Amino acid sequence: MRRTKHPKLLLLTVAIALSPWAAVAQNLSNIVSVGDGDTVRISANGKTETIRMACIDAPERAQAPWGAAATQRLRQLLPKGQAVRVREIERDSEANG
After folding, report:
1. Which residue in 32, 9, 27, 8 sits closest to 17, CA to CA?
2. Which residues cross the membrane (predicted)?
């Protein structure tokens, strides 16, 4: 899986998908994985994108003890496969590796 050098800084809106076709009909993406407390990877239009959520400053996963807790909580809120609507706010200038 490739990570973009400058991931999109986006606001995620969680959508409840009532059927398998709801995600397609509403132009939604799906959660692929959670990177840390403010970063997720989504699948959209056959591509995987790394997304940093706007207005959230969570500790990095390696920042003990809160980084692991923040990552775990985001995994609970946005489990793999969860349908989300993504709205781009701006491109992130923070390089993440």
Report:
1. 27
2. none
Residue 79 lies in a domain: yes
* Alpha-carbon torsion (17, 32, 47, 8), positive or negative: positive
3-state secondary structure of 77: helix
Q: What is the pTM of this model?
A: 0.68
**Could you tell me if residue 96 is inside a domain?**
no
Q: What residues make up the domain containing 28? A: 8-88
Among the listed residues 29, 32, 30, 38, the one whose alpha carbon sits nearest the alpha carbon of residue 2? 32
Q: Tokens in use for 63?
A: 């920042």
| Residue tagged 């706007």 (tokens) | 54
